[in-house]
Protein backbone atom coordinates (compact mmCIF):
# COMPACT_ATOMS: atom_id res chain seq x y z
CA UNK A 1 0.00 0.00 0.00
CA UNK A 2 1.04 3.56 -0.59
CA UNK A 3 0.11 6.72 1.19
CA UNK A 4 1.28 9.77 3.01
CA UNK A 5 1.14 9.87 6.81
CA UNK A 6 2.74 12.07 9.41
CA UNK A 7 4.96 10.34 11.96
CA UNK A 8 2.42 10.54 14.81
CA UNK A 9 -0.41 9.17 12.67
CA UNK A 10 1.80 6.39 11.27
CA UNK A 11 2.93 5.29 14.74
CA UNK A 12 -0.62 5.34 16.12
CA UNK A 13 -1.88 3.30 13.18
CA UNK A 14 0.89 0.73 13.66
CA UNK A 15 0.18 0.46 17.41
CA UNK A 16 -3.57 0.08 17.04
CA UNK A 17 -3.67 -2.24 14.00
CA UNK A 18 -4.35 -5.93 14.63
CA UNK A 19 -1.23 -8.06 14.49
CA UNK A 20 -0.93 -10.02 11.29
CA UNK A 21 2.42 -11.59 12.14
CA UNK A 22 3.84 -12.90 15.41
CA UNK A 23 7.25 -11.36 14.69
CA UNK A 24 9.24 -9.64 12.00
CA UNK A 25 12.88 -8.92 11.28
CA UNK A 26 14.38 -6.32 8.94
CA UNK A 27 17.86 -6.97 7.56
CA UNK A 28 19.21 -3.68 6.14
CA UNK A 29 21.96 -3.45 3.55
CA UNK A 30 24.60 -0.76 3.66
CA UNK A 31 23.02 2.57 2.72
CA UNK A 32 24.22 4.69 -0.16
CA UNK A 33 24.57 8.15 1.42
CA UNK A 34 24.57 11.38 -0.58
CA UNK A 35 25.96 14.08 1.73
CA UNK A 36 27.73 17.31 0.87
CA UNK A 37 30.40 18.60 3.27
CA UNK A 38 28.96 20.97 5.88
CA UNK A 39 25.41 20.24 4.71
CA UNK A 40 22.42 19.90 7.00
CA UNK A 41 20.56 17.55 4.65
CA UNK A 42 21.32 14.24 2.99
CA UNK A 43 19.69 11.43 1.05
CA UNK A 44 20.06 7.71 1.70
CA UNK A 45 19.12 4.76 -0.49
CA UNK A 46 18.88 1.47 1.42
CA UNK A 47 17.71 -2.01 0.47
CA UNK A 48 16.24 -4.40 3.04
CA UNK A 49 14.96 -7.94 3.27
CA UNK A 50 12.00 -8.25 5.64
CA UNK A 51 10.98 -11.55 7.22
CA UNK A 52 7.41 -11.69 8.60
CA UNK A 53 6.72 -14.75 10.76
CA UNK A 54 3.24 -16.07 11.53
CA UNK A 55 2.27 -17.97 14.66
CA UNK A 56 3.42 -21.60 14.64
CA UNK A 57 0.73 -23.85 13.21
CA UNK A 58 -1.01 -21.24 11.07
CA UNK A 59 -1.98 -22.41 7.60
CA UNK A 60 -0.93 -19.19 5.91
CA UNK A 61 2.79 -19.03 5.03
CA UNK A 62 5.38 -16.63 6.38
CA UNK A 63 6.17 -13.63 4.19
CA UNK A 64 9.47 -12.34 2.82
CA UNK A 65 9.79 -8.92 1.20
CA UNK A 66 12.48 -6.98 -0.64
CA UNK A 67 12.12 -3.29 0.25
CA UNK A 68 13.89 -0.16 -0.95
CA UNK A 69 13.96 2.88 1.36
CA UNK A 70 14.85 6.29 -0.09
CA UNK A 71 15.11 8.78 2.76
CA UNK A 72 15.59 12.54 2.91
CA UNK A 73 17.39 13.37 6.14
CA UNK A 74 17.85 16.61 8.06
CA UNK A 75 20.37 17.44 10.77
CA UNK A 76 18.52 18.60 13.88
CA UNK A 77 20.42 19.52 17.04
CA UNK A 78 23.47 17.41 16.20
CA UNK A 79 21.53 14.32 15.11
CA UNK A 80 20.09 13.15 11.82
CA UNK A 81 16.35 12.51 11.44
CA UNK A 82 14.27 11.16 8.57
CA UNK A 83 12.29 14.03 7.10
CA UNK A 84 10.67 12.09 4.24
CA UNK A 85 10.67 8.42 3.25
CA UNK A 86 9.63 6.52 0.16
CA UNK A 87 9.37 2.77 0.83
CA UNK A 88 8.91 0.59 -2.24
CA UNK A 89 8.26 -3.16 -2.24
CA UNK A 90 10.59 -4.59 -4.89
CA UNK A 91 9.53 -8.24 -4.53
CA UNK A 92 7.63 -10.58 -2.24
CA UNK A 93 7.58 -14.30 -1.54
CA UNK A 94 4.80 -15.85 0.50
CA UNK A 95 4.71 -19.48 -0.53
CA UNK A 96 1.80 -19.10 -2.95
How would you portray this structure in words?
There is one protein chain. Strands 1, 2, 3, 4 and 5 form a 5-stranded antiparallel beta sheet that branches. The chain is mainly beta. It starts with 6 loop residues before the first helix and ends with a strand. A hairpin with a 2-residue loop joins β4 and β5 (79-93). It has one helix at 7-16; strands spanning 23-28, 32-35, 41-53, 63-76, 79-93. It has 1 helix and 5 strands; from the N terminus they run αβββββ.
Number of strands: 5
Intertermini distance? 19 Å
Beta-strand portion reads over 45%
The rounded Rg comes to 16 Å
Largest sheet features? 5 strands, antiparallel
Q: What's the shape?
A: elongated
Quick overview of this protein structure:
Helix content is 10%, strand content 54%. The chain has one helix and five strands.
Indicate the topology.
Elements: H1 7-16, E1 23-28, E2 32-35, E3 41-53, E4 63-76, E5 79-93
Antiparallel strand pairs: 1-3, 2-3, 3-4, 4-5
Summary tags:
single chain, 96 residues, mainly beta, five-stranded antiparallel β-sheet, 1 helix, 5 strands, elongated
